[in-house]
Amino acid sequence: MILTKVKLDLRSPSARQALTDCGDMHRNIQALFGESREDAGVLYRAQKTERGCTVYLLSSRKPVFDEASARSGMIPAGTRDMTAVEGLFAEGRRFRFDLLTMPSKKESDRTRKNSQRRILRNPEERLAWLARKAEAGGFRILSASDEEGETLRAKKSGGELWIHTTRFTGVLEITDPDRFLSAWKGGIGPEKAYGLGMLMVR
After folding, report:
1. What's the pTM?
2. Closest Cα partner for 132 from 120, 140, 124?
3. DSSP letters along 108-167, please?
4. Which residues pair with 81 in a beta bridge?
5. In the chain, what are the domain boundaries?
6. What is the spatial distance between Cα 146 and Cα 167, in angstroms, rounded to a whole number?
7. DSSP string covering 20-32, please?
8. How far apart are CA 134 and CA 132, in angstroms?
9. pLDDT by residue (tens digit) across 111-169?
10. Above pLDDT 70, what percent of the chain?
């Protein structure tokens, strides 16, 4: 996997728009790969500060920066091959983690064809959700805290999508290296196309 650091040039109207619409952010990022998010194995995390925004991309392929990406304000600031890091994912290894995600539960609705997602607002429910995801992903949570993140917005043909985020931080321990690697590469939770699910470890 490849980790790429991208600085957003906020002089670009496209970059400023991407900060208000995560659908635009998704499209700008995928334009760096020229293929679907799934095919390029893309996860990303946007970290905003008073000085601007940095986007971290994790992908199976190297992004391509050109004139079009420059116009969208996507400025490369560094690339790292993560093969050596992947080699550290052994049973019993502990890492500090940072995860932005949307803890939720699918519930059936007889008035609708498809089930609906219910956002988990209770901290105990959210931490229980994280523990279940950890077990499925080959790790366990040794300590964790959660805080509500910003609400993301994306324009869609049928209206608008609002994504209520939660940021988890803490310490994890790997129990199954193969499953952990898969979870790290594939992301955790829903709405990965909109900047959620990237498990940042150190």
Report:
1. 0.90
2. 140
3. --TTSSS-EEEE--SHHHHHHHHHHHHHHTTEEEEEEEEEEEEEEEEEETTEEEEEEEEE
4. 2
5. 2-81, 91-201
6. 6
7. H-HHHHHHHHHTT
8. 5
9. 666 667 788 989 999 999 999 999 999 999 999 999 988 899 988 777 888 999 999 99
10. 96
CATH entry, 91-201, from 3.30.2350.10, 3.30.70.1210, 3.10.300.10, 3.40.190.10: 3.30.70.1210
What would the two tokens of residue 27 be?
């499209």
Tokens of 155: 């324009």
Is CATH 3.30.70.920 what the domain over 2-81 is classified as, yes or no?
no
Residue 80 has phi, psi (to 5 degrees) of: -135, 130
For the segment 141-155, what is each residue's pLDDT rounded down to a tens digit?
999 999 988 899 988
Provide the token pair at 74: 């996507």
Task: Give the 3-state secondary structure percentages of the chain, helix then strand then coil, rounded to 5.
Answer: 30, 40, 30
Q: Which of left, alpha, beta for 80 (phi over 0: left; psi -120 to 50: alpha)?
A: beta
